[in-house]
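During the reporting period the student researcher (J.K.) took over the structure-prediction task from the postdoctoral fellow and processed the backlog of single-chain submissions. One of the processed entries is reproduced below for the supervisory committee.
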Amino acid sequence: MPFDRIRSLAIVGLLLAMVGLCPTGGFAQETVTSTNIGNYIQNAKTAEDHEAIAAYYEAEATKARKAAESYHNQYDCYVKETTERQLKGERFGETAAKRYCRNLTRLYNQIARESEDLAKLHHKIADAMKSGAPASAGS
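J.K. obtained the following structure tokens:
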């Protein structure tokens, strides 16, 4: 008898899990991630979908800004270390490290700007969908 009860509970649990996995509306109920953003963009049909995409790009921009700040701080440390060693008459061959940090700072700042632009675009599309006006991608 206990086996039948366990099996029944397992079946009910499985059915509840399957119902929970079924989509009940648009994509906006799911979390947009780097692995599903392409699918989201391709299948966005509602203002909420575009707002979710915009939120994803805003989060990406924030992450990129933090990464840029981190590399900028590292660059400052290399510059300080170089200056201190030069004042002592020592050579400090960390030019490659400074260049690396400077380039990554620029790269992450560019990623942040472009992510912000994409977020603005999807906000604009969502606003147009809400108002019934056509959205133009040009501005």
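The committee noted the following: The CA atoms of residues 75 and 98 lie 5 Å apart.
J.K. will present the remaining backlog at the next meeting.
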